[in-house]
Amino acid sequence: DGPHLSIRKFRRDVLSADDMLRNLTLTEPMLEFMKGVVGSRLNVLISGGTGSGKTTFLNVLSSFIPTRERVLTIEDSAELQLRQPHVVRLETRPQRQLVINSLRMRPDRIIVGEVRGAEAVDMLQAMNTGHDGSLTTLHANSPRDALSRLETMISMAGLRLPEKGMRQQIASAIDIIVQVARLADGTRKIVNISEIVGMEGEVITMQDLFLFEREGMDADGNVAGRFRATGIRPRCADRLQQYGIDLAGTLFSEIDPRLKSVRGGA
After folding, report:
1. Euclidean distance between the first and final Cα of the chain, in Å?
2. Which end of the chain is more exposed for a tag (fewer CB within 10 A), N or C?
3. 112: which residues sit within 8 A by CB, 6+ positions away?
4. Which residues on adjacent β-strands are paired with residue 188?
5. Using one digit for the tens of pLDDT, what is the confidence trace for 156-176?
6. Which residue from 55, 81, 35 is spatially nearest to 247, judged by alpha carbons?
7. DSSP string for 155-171
8. Which residues of 77-96 are buried (b: 16+ CB within 10 A; e: fewer)?
9. 196 — phi, psi (to 5°)?
10. Cα(63)–Cα(79) distance, rounded to whole angstroms?
11. pLDDT by residue (tens digit) across 172-231?
């Protein structure tokens, strides 16, 4: 019935890792692992629904990037708030041409605010050709759904790659998928941290490292549940050790008391 104006405002005091621990968005072992993932330059994909906190968590992960590195961000609307001294911020619509041009700008890491279309091809190729430690987000409801959406975006580029070829590109580029969710009570949780381990035939294989298990609702309408490790030692542990990051063996075990004591509903 008339003009409508949409304004998206962001907090000036960006949520920190400590804030996320305090809000029970994740646990200390999960945060410790993700800090090691960023430090060892593994490629991370953050997936989740609208308003689930993908960009917020991407900002937290970016705070673990060493200040000596040159970081290049690509967004269709400027939302990231990086604190490193050497950040080149690019903003445009569509994003694909920027992703291609960014490879000539000597970045140590590339951060794509959100992949929505054909730029997924160039982002994956960048991850596969020496730009380790890149970060990005996309809309998806589960880690497996995130892989399906990436395949759809690759097909939008018109390269006519076979399905197995697309999946090989994804499996060799992405190391860790983090699933963020906004639960029924409004709280935001890291509900999955999964590792891509390779291909079996024509299927990308993954293993869950950390989960948030929902157990129902309490009397106050809060989601009840608990975080837990699956007990699987990630294949990337050797990569972390090469970068001098030695995570305790109990980090991925359910015997870690920091996992047992955490309940849902912040």
Report:
1. 40
2. N
3. 73, 74, 75, 95, 99, 119, 123, 134, 135, 136, 137
4. 182
5. 888 888 889 899 999 999 999
6. 35
7. HHTT----HHHHHHHHH
8. eebbbbeeeebeebeeeebb
9. -85, 125
10. 15
11. 999 999 999 999 888 999 999 999 999 999 999 999 999 999 888 888 888 888 899 998
